[in-house]
Specification:
Radius of gyration: 19 Å
Helix content: 55-70%
Structural class: mainly alpha
Order of helices and strands: HHHHHHH
Mean pLDDT: 84
Shape: globular
Distance between the termini: 14 Å
Strand content: under 5%
Number of helices: 7
Number of strands: 0
Length: 168
């Protein structure tokens, strides 16, 4: 019972981390009105996967649950890679790997209304950084990369605290 609680705690950490990252992205987009670029949208996928792995891990048998949580490591590494890629695009070290590096804000009920609302130029190119904290020149992509490292460290510490005798 004790190892399930610990496994559940690490799983809950993954779920909360995923919701925190997606919550900040939602708040930035829907409350601040900052449209995401193509890379921003791709950076959200690993967090969705972490939420699923966090939900699934406690309901699996202990060994498979630990495996599901260890599967979070490559997902977090992919998230870090996307964040580094995005930061490099922002710093103009390399071009965006996506041909359509923008996300149009399309509104309307009919297809004609949606076409009419599409911008003629990209609303948010990937190389235009978004700074959330005034006076702090750290973009959301860089903050995301730091957050990934914090979550990865938390995952490794949490998994390391499960007693070795409980690793069947």
């Amino acid at each position: 019972m004790k190892k399930t609680m610990r496994l559940s705690t690490v799983a809950l950490f993954m779920i909360l981390a995923g919701f925190a990252a997606l919550g900040v992205a939602w708040w930035t987009q829907h409350r601040l009105g900052i449209m995401p670029c193509e890379l921003c949208l791709w950076e959200r996928w690993p967090w969705r996967v972490l939420i699923v792995l966090g939900v699934v891990a406690p309901v699996l048998p202990a060994r498979m649950g630990r495996g599901a949580l260890w599967a979070c490591v490559p997902v977090l590494l992919a998230a870090e890679g996307l964040a580094i890629c995005h930061a490099g695009v922002e710093w103009k070290w390399w071009p965006s790997p996506f041909p359509a590096c923008h996300a149009a804000h399309v509104v309307g009920r009919t297809l004609a209304e949606r076409w009419a609302s599409m911008p003629l130029v990209p609303s948010k190119p990937c190389d235009a950084p978004t700074y959330l904290i005034p006076g702090l020149p750290v973009s959301m992509a860089v903050m995301g990369a730091v957050f990934v490292l914090v979550v990865l460290a938390g995952l490794c510490v949490g998994m390391g605290r499960i007693k070795k005798s409980n690793w069947i």
